[in-house]
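Chain A, query sequence.
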Amino acid sequence: MASVVGERYDQETDRIGGLGLEELRTLRRQAQEDEADLSYLRRLLHGRVDILRAELTRRSGRTAAADTLLEQLAVILTDLPSQVRNSARHLTLNTPRSEEFQALADELMDDVALADLESQSDAALQAACIRLTAHERMLSGRRQGLQRTVDGCSAEITRRYREGEARVDDLLSGG
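Chain A, predicted structure.
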């Protein structure tokens, strides 16, 4: 299902130069919204994988962690500051707005029953980590494609204003 996400943008990106200004803005806005939805899904996957890995670590006895996963949950789900300098892109994450992304979130979160990790074997937890990590990589690739679409639209809009093909007066007057 997720492979469909963003494919329409690949086709649009190929013809950005031929789109009208309003079409460019609409495409950019839609790509930004879908990027935010994919980012939300990625965060869900990261949280799920972090919990599964913490349970596997707890079971192994390699750390002097708290006795239960619940006692560790706040630490498990806390993000450390990134060591990588990323772009200045800011996204506000909310639950997915479209049925497509909501269904994908449900599909991805049904992979392993978090409520009863104790009943899962180590092998089942490891397999779930592998599956979820593969989903995350796929979503990351789609998200990068959406970012290229947003950047391409922004660059084309900027070029048009810079070269006089579009005018700020038209934007301000609603034209």
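The CA atoms of residues 93 and 153 lie 22 Å apart. The helical segments are 7-14, 21-60, 69-76, 99-109, 122-162, 168-172.
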